[in-house]
Each structure stands twice: as structure tokens, then as C-alpha cells.
Design brief:
31% of the residues lie in helices and 21% in strands. It has 249 residues and is an alpha/beta fold. It has an eight-stranded mixed beta sheet with strand order 1-2-11-10-7-3-4-6, sandwiched between helices. Strands 5-9-8 form a three-stranded antiparallel beta sheet. Helix 2 packs across helix 3. It is globular. The two termini are 13 Å apart.
Length: 249
């Protein structure tokens, strides 16, 4: 594994800490290295505190990492698992992020973890946002993030009508309407972690695979425009900690 300490151009990051780019030889090494990194953060938190809180993203990219993480020998009954974002779907819906986490993480050793789904039958989206912000009163120690080919992170999409409102919010979670954003596909109504909420998490891992994703991330760093490349919000940290980027071809 190669580790590249990346100091982005001042234009992009003069208010932001640098990121650490971990380049892995192949998908298997990438999977286990990311899982080990997440488990190490949880273990440190559990040594220092009674409970630990982990935030997870959806999508196909992190699924193998979650499967590997589920085998980690941790005190999972002391771990709360929340979501970075969620589509406005029933939590059992096959396309919900909750379903992905239940399928790939909450089994084996991790079956004992306490899961915090955002959506529940009969709950309005406003109530779901309030519930997510209530959970967020307990600071997460680690968040697993992904990035789309359009440079979005969580459910913060370039060109989204609600993007400026989400950037300006002092809440950890907000509801957004991503109508007109191709990256959101048909799931335009969503709940997402805000840049404020992201910045409060001391350990942030961005998981990426493929040359296209690395090129997009490089373009974002060179440009420095968060409205065009919302993934740049993941660099911010009130803890002054670096974003850990794990990449393989």
C-alpha cells in the first residue's frame, strides 16, 4: 500500500486540512485496508468511551468493505450505526441505504450493533430529519463517505436547488430535493448529512475505485468550487483532521 500525503493547491484548500491518499494494489487489499481502518477508529473510541457511533453511506462501492467490517472482533453491542444519507424510501425497500447496511454489515460479529434507520412507516420527512438530528447529538467517531462521478458526496449534488441551504445549515441533517440532478436518478427526495455535520466527525474516510473517480476527485481539488464539486465539503473538519481517501484501480 502506498500512502501519498496530498497538499492541495491553495485555491482549493486554504481553509482546509490536506487529505491522505491511500493507494491500494487491488480490490481485495482496498477492501480489507478500509475495513481495518474503520475498525481501528471504532476500537479507539470504545476504549475511551462507553459507546461508539459509525455513519455509513450507501451505493455499491462500500458493500464489500461493510462485509469485511462485519467480521471485526469489536464490542458491537456498544456501537451505534447511523447513515450519512438516505433516499425517501421505506427502510425495507431494496433501494434504501438502510437495506444495504442491514444486508452487508449487520451480520456476523456486527449483528449486535444498534442500527439507526432514518425513515420509518408513518413518519413524515420532517419528523425523519428531526430524528436524525436527535441521533446526531451523540458525535460520530467515523463516517464512511462515497463520491459519485458528478462529484457529489452524501446527497449533496452539484446544481441541486437546496445545495446552498444545505451548505449554510447548522444542523447535522436536512431534507433536500435533488430534482434535475442526474446523479440522484429517480430518488430525488432525500435526507442528507450537511457539511456542518460532516465536519464534526473526526475520522472521515472517502472510498473510491477506478480511474474515473480519481480523475474527478483531482479535478475537484484543482478547481476548488464546492458548488460544482460538493465532495470538497468532506475536507472540512472542526477537529483539523485529514480526510482519509482509500483508492484502487
Amino acid at each position: 500500500m502506498a500512502v501519498e500525503r496530498s497538499h492541495e493547491p491553495a485555491k482549493a484548500t486554504w481553509l482546509q486540512p490536506p487529505h491522505d491518499l491511500h493507494v491500494h494494489a487491488n480490490g481485495d487489499v482496498w477492501t480489507w485496508a478500509a475495513a481495518v481502518a474503520i475498525a481501528a477508529e471504532l476500537r479507539r473510541e470504545l476504549i475511551a468511551h462507553p459507546r461508539a457511533r459509525l455513519l455509513l453511506s450507501g451505493g455499491t462501492t462500500p458493500a464489500p468493505v461493510y462485509r469485511a467490517l462485519s467480521k471485526a472482533p469489536l464490542d458491537w453491542d456498544r456501537v451505534n450505526v447511523g447513515l450519512v444519507d438516505e433516499r425517501w424510501l421505506h427502510p425495507q425497500d431494496l433501494y434504501s441505504n438502510a437495506h444495504l447496511v442491514r444486508t452487508h454489515l449487520l451480520k456476523d460479529q456486527a449483528a449486535a450493533a444498534h442500527f439507526e434507520p432514518m425513515t420509518r412507516p408513518g413518519r413524515t420527512i420532517e419528523e425523519a430529519v428531526a430524528g436524525a438530528n436527535a441521533f446526531a447529538r451523540i458525535e460520530a467517531c467515523v463516517a464512511v463517505l462515497g463520491m459519485g462521478d458528478d462529484g457529489h458526496v452524501a446527497s449533496l449534488f452539484p446544481g441541486m436547488t437546496d445545495l446552498e441551504r444545505a451548505f449554510a445549515s447548522r444542523q447535522d441533517y436536512v431534507a433536500v430535493d435533488a430534482t434535475g440532478c442526474p446523479g440522484a436518478r429517480q430518488w430525488t427526495r432525500r435526507i442528507t448529512l450537511t457539511p456542518h455535520g460532516m465536519a464534526r466527525v473526526p475520522s472521515r474516510l472517502l472510498l473510491m475505485r477506478g480511474a474515473r473517480k480519481r480523475d474527478v476527485f483531482s479535478q475537484a481539488l484543482a478547481d476548488g468550487n464546492r458548488n460544482r464539486w460538493p465532495v470538497l465539503a468532506a475536507l472540512d473538519s472542526v477537529h483539523r483532521t485529514s480526510l482519509q481517501v482509500h483508492w484502487c484501480a
